[in-house]
Amino acid sequence: MSELLQAVTLRGQHASLVPLHPDHAAALADAARDGELWRLWYTVVPRPEGMAAEIERRLGLHAAGSMLPFAVLDAQGVPVGMTTYMNIDRVHRRVEIGSTWYARRVQRSALNTECKRMLLTHAFETLDCIAVEFRTHRLNTQSRRAIERLGAQLDGILRAHQRTADGSLRDTAVYSITAAEWPTIRQHLDHQLSRQR
């Protein structure tokens, strides 16, 4: 298996990222209930009763070589969301950080900043990626602001890029951070974390 797909655990002060496992289903269903996240029309969060199936889907994509899924744990070790490396390009050493969601109680907190800091550090400093992408619905302003706060640059908008679950067309905003930009972005994220403590 490519090192880009090797299951790892990443630990910080506010959060830990652990390999996603079926045993996380009940706690992640509770996390999704915090804010009724599945009701948001511009993103895809599994319904509580569909959490086990979503975990199996992500684990299947890992087995197929296109995703490395994580459960996000808070400082107390409670699962509060999911994130992944996805659209993994082994040849050009690029990954996308995506399919991310968090319980409402930890949104806009140091937990998210630290999770992105850990994922970016691992991508650039261990996996030797040349770039890391972020993608979101063009109209998901909360997600776009969060990505921009990381220091990612907007590469462009993929118009009529995908069909959503309700059949409507999604325009996708594509952002990235390159390896050359990483030292400055890392300093920026460390500064943000020092202010969020």
Automatic annotation (TrEMBL):
It comes from the Bacteria. Residues 15-181 form the N-acetyltransferase domain. It comes from Ideonella aquatica. Coiled coil: none annotated. PROSITE patterns: GNAT. Signal peptide: none annotated. This is GNAT family N-acetyltransferase. GO terms for molecular function: acyltransferase activity, transferring groups other than amino-acyl groups.
